[in-house]
Amino acid sequence: MEEEKVPQRPRHKRKLRWGRLVFVIVLLAGLVTAGFWGAVWCYDNLIAPPKVEVVGADSKIAADALLNQRINVLLLGIDDGDSEAAESEPKRTDAMMLASFDPDNNEVALVSMPRDTMVQIPGHKGYDKINAAYAYGGVMLAKQTVANLLRVPIHYYVLVDWRAFKESIDLIGGVDLYVDKDMYYEDPYADLVIDIKHGYQHLNGELAGQYVRFRKDELGDIGRVQRQQKFMMALAAQIFNIDTVTKIPALFSTVDRHVETDMDTMTMIKAANTFKLFGDQNLKSCMLYGDFYDSPEDGISYWRTTPEQVERTLDELGIPYMKRDNEDTENNNETAKEAEQ
Question: Residue 244 — φ and ψ, nearest 5°?
C-alpha cells in the first residue's frame, strides 16, 4: 500500500521590511556613536584630562611638593548688571576668593581678597586694585597676580556670574541668615535695588545676591567681604543636607550654563568630596589682613596689605605657602614706603 503523501505547506518568502531595517541600523549607529563619544569624554575628563599649568610666583612654588598637596582654586565673581564697563569691555571682578582644599584631612579654607586690595599687576607699572587683573589680562593674569600676592600655587579657577549664584541659591531652597542691620541701596543706572531688613531672614537667590553685593556702609568693600564670608559659612551649613543632594543634577545644569572653569571632572569630585565631609570645625575662612590706605598721589582708596599680614592670614587658615627671602621682604617694604610718599 502506497504511503500517503503529506502535502507540504508552500513556503512563502518573508518580505523584507525596509522600515524596520532602517530603524535598527539607525539605532545601532546611534548607540555606537554615543558609545564612542562617551568613551572620548571619559578619556578626556576622567582618564587623561588636559593638563592645567600650575601658576606660582616662581618656579619653586609651582613645583613644590608640599604646597601642591592641596587643591588651590581661584574663585572669581563677575556682576554684569553692576558693572560700569560696556557690554563689550572686559569686566573687573566683583569678588575674589582663594578656596584651598585639603583632601587628605577633609579641610577647606577660604581667603577673601577685597577688590580694592593694592597690588602690582604683572606687565603694568605702579599699583592697581586687584580686581583690575582680570580686566587687564583675563584669568591667567588674575591667577598670576594672586599667586604673587599669596605665594601659593594656583591650580585652577572658577569664574561665576551672578545669574549662576542666584539660580543655585533658589535651587537649594534659599539660605537662613541673621542680618545685622537694615540694608537699603538704590542705583537706577545699574537697575539695582537692595532692600533687606534687620533680623533673621530666609534669603532666596535674589535677596542673597543683594546681601553679598551690598557695600554702602561705613566699611564699604571690607564690610561686603565680611558679609560674603558670613554667607558662605551659612551656605556651607546646609548645602549638603538630604534635600539638597537630590537637586545636584539641576545644580550641575546651572553650573554648565553660567560657570567657567579649567577643573577636570575628577578634580571637581575630589574637591566636592572634601567640601561635603567638613563640619564647622573643618571649614575656616578669613579676609586678607590689611589696612585702609589713601594714595597721596591720586587720592585712590586701597586695602593695603604687607607680606607679614599675608603670612598671618595664611597661617591662621593653615594654608602652606613659601616664605619670602630677606631680599624680597626688603624690596616689598621699600616699595610700600615709596607708595606712601
Answer: -75, -35
Closest CA to 235 of 173, 318, 180: 173
| Whether this model's pTM surpasses 0.85 | no
- pLDDT tens digits, 85-122: 555 566 788 889 999 998 888 888 999 999 999 999 99
CA 286 to the chain's CA centroid: 17
Q: Are 332 and 319 in contact (CB under 8 A)?
A: no
Residue with C-alpha cell 533680623? Answer: 199
Residues 133-156 as b/e (b if ≥16 CB within 10 A, e otherwise) read bbbbbebebbbbbbbbbbbbbbbb
CB neighbour class for 260 (10 Å; exposed up to 12, middle 13-18, buried from 19): middle
Instruction: State the number of CA atoms in the 13 A half-sphere of 6 facing the CB.
Output: 2
Which residues on neighbouring strands pair with residue 200, listed in sequence order?
Answer: 178
Domain regions of the chain by residue span: 20-49, 59-340
Sign, Cα dihedral of 161, 167, 168, 169: positive
Which class is domain 59-340?
alpha beta
Give 111's Cβ-side CA count (13 Å radius).
29
Mean pLDDT, the chain, whole residue set? 78
> What are the angstrom distances between the C-alpha of 191 and each of 82, 149, 186, 211, 303?
8, 35, 8, 16, 28
For 169-206, b/e burial (b = at least 16 CB within 10 A) is bebbebbebebeeebeeeeeeeeeebebeeeebebebe
pLDDT tens, position by position, 168-186: 888 888 899 999 999 998 8
How big is the CA angle at 201 (ends 198 and 204), to the nearest 5 degrees?
125
Answer for the pair 283, 108: CB distance below 8 angstroms, yes or no: yes
Give residue-wise pLDDT tens across range 234-252. Answer: 887 776 665 665 666 666 6
